[in-house]
Design brief:
By secondary structure, the chain is α+β, with helices and mostly antiparallel strands. Helices cover about 35% and strands about 20% of the residues. It has 9 helices and 17 strands.
Length: about 425
């Protein structure tokens, strides 16, 4: 390829990228998780799936070794053999039989992204380490639909490096939807099997959904979530007895032994089940809350609640997940945590500064009485309407605070992703 052809090709790629960005603004992004049916895999397919992750680990470690004396940009992603160590620490050469070129590129690109993140953290004067060798590789990025992966039909998937299509579950969620655009995906190796996380784009619908009236929510330690309608959620997903037993069994195993490796595998599987239960509970609550036109909440420091009287209850709740999911929605209004939503009486407007955390009911001289959490949730709606979002430096009580109503971008800024 001549220099002129290369420049013209890069210009076409750049123009296509700009057009795609404009198109994405009018689309909704959704990620679907599909499970690969392991019971319907033949021996060759099962071995191929396993070796994809093993070879990705070999390649990752080989790139780290190469970086000790060379620049990562000089690494040849088309390499077919990599160098590694066997169990006796002897140097061996291994062939990459299943990993395709695009998969190799994704592994190398992942290392580059990690290096950029470490560099950015170092510039911000944070403590940074270095990339370490992996004993397992659990996520492979499939960059291009139709090349690295393709749906054969509603329940079969063709993967690069595997000769026959594999059976999958859950693809009917989006394949039959009109105007769906399938983008990249991730092949995941999780304790309970193999999954495919598919990124899709679809044009925003023109139809208008009917929402319920606005709602305020009060987040607390003892009662996880209380709504202005009086509904209370106590979200607690504790550790199972099996999980505790596996933790004790792992601690007794000798480090480096095969028995310890097997026990840790079972432990990871149990942790995943626990995380799945938490995610399911969070999704159901968020879905129910977002049926309302507006959701008003405060920017509570949930991480700081992990210590203290109800610290363990907060740790085993899904408050953090619920908060993160709500913050991503444009119909959620976030008030500053400095607004004392419990102190003001909505009936007469008087501020009761004597109320303490021990008082579970709000009582006012005017005769107004209400459950403390329900009262706070209702006040969030009233106080948010009294303040101008992002422009006022005082709250409804005349106290100097940061802006009374924070934008979602402001709240999310500086938080780890």
């Amino acid at each position: 390829m001549t220099e002129e052809e290369r420049i013209a090709k890069n210009a076409r790629i750049k123009e296509k990228g700009k057009a795609t960005k404009l198109k994405r603004k009018e689309q909704v992004c959704r990620v679907f998780r599909l499970k690969i049916d392991f019971s319907h895999l033949n021996n060759a397919q099962a071995d191929a799936l396993k070796m994809l992750f093993v070879e990705a680990k070999w390649l990752y470690n080989d790139v780290l070794t190469f970086m000790n004396n060379h620049d990562i940009n000089d690494y040849d992603y088309k390499v077919k053999t990599v160098q590694g160590l066997d169990k006796d620490k002897n140097t061996v050469m291994r062939e990459l039989e299943y990993l395709g070129s695009q998969m190799k590129q994704s592994v190398i690109q992942g290392i580059k992204s990690s290096l950029k993140s470490l560099s950015a953290s170092k510039k911000n004067k944070r403590k940074t380490g270095k990339l370490k060798y992996k004993s397992e590789y659990n996520s492979i990025n499939l960059q291009q639909y139709g090349v690295t992966y393709k749906f054969h039909d509603n329940n079969r998937l063709r993967l690069q490096g595997i000769k026959k299509p594999v059976k999958i579950e859950g693809a009917e969620q989006f394949l039959k939807q009109p105007g769906i655009e399938i983008a990249n995906a991730k092949l995941l190796n999780e304790p309970d099997g193999y999954y495919l996380a598919v990124t899709t784009f679809q044009n925003k619908g023109s139809e208008t959904k009917k929402y319920k009236s606005p709602i305020g929510i009060d987040i607390g330690k003892k009662t996880s979530i209380t709504t202005s309608e009086g509904k209370k959620y106590k979200i607690f997903v504790g550790e199972t007895e099996r999980l505790k037993k596996l933790q004790k069994r792992t601690a007794k195993r000798k480090k480096g032994s095969s028995n310890r490796y097997k026990t840790r595998k079972l432990l990871r599987k149990e942790y995943q089940k626990l995380n799945n239960r938490k995610l399911d509970a969070a999704n159901k609550i968020v879905h129910e809350l977002l049926e309302h036109e507006k959701v008003y909440m405060q920017d509570e420091n949930i991480k700081g609640w992990h210590k203290g009287l109800f610290g363990r209850t907060v740790q085993h709740s899904v408050l953090g997940l619920v908060k993160i999911k709500l913050l991503k929605n444009e119909r959620v209004v976030v008030l500053s945590k400095n607004i004392a939503t419990t102190k003001k009486c909505p009936n007469c407007g008087k501020i009761n500064k004597n109320i303490t955390l021990a008082d579970r009911k709000f009582e006012c001289e005017c005769g107004y009485m209400e459950d403390r959490d329900i009262h706070a949730a209702r006040n969030m709606i009233l106080l948010s309407e009294e303040n101008t979002c992002g422009t006022q430096g005082i709250n409804a009580f005349g106290e100097d605070v940061r802006p009374a109503c924070l934008s979602i971008d402001t709240v999310m800024a500086g938080r780890p992703r």
